[in-house]
Amino acid sequence: MTCEKQSNFKVISLPRLNGLTPTLESTALKLMEEAGELAQAIGKFRASSGENIKMDEKEVVDMMARELLDVAQVAVSMMFVLEENYQIDLDEKIRQHIEKLKAKGYLK
C-alpha cells in the first residue's frame, strides 16, 4: 500500500491480491462482512451498543483504522473484479465519480 499527497487529494493505493479468484457476489459478501466489523469497532468498543467493554481510546481508533482499511481493500478488489470480468473502465468511472463530487460541491 502506498499513500501520497497530491494538492487536495490523498492517494491511497491498495494492491490487487494474489491467488484469489473472487466473484462479484463473493466480494460483495466479503465487503459486507468487513463493513460489519468496522461497525462493531465503532459501536461495541465505544459502548454505543450497550456493552461495557473497556478499551483505551487509542486502541479503539487503531481498530477502526484497521477495519476501515479492510473495507477499502475489499472495495478495491471488487473494482478489479468489475474491470477484469465485466470490462468496466475504472479510469472513466473514477473520472465520473470526481465530476460528481465536484458537482455536489465536495471538490473544487
TrEMBL record:
Domain NTP pyrophosphohydrolase MazG-like: 23-102
InterPro entries according to UniProt: AF0060_NTP-PPase_MazG-like, MazG-like_dom
Xref: Pfam families: MazG
Protein name per the record: MazG nucleotide pyrophosphohydrolase
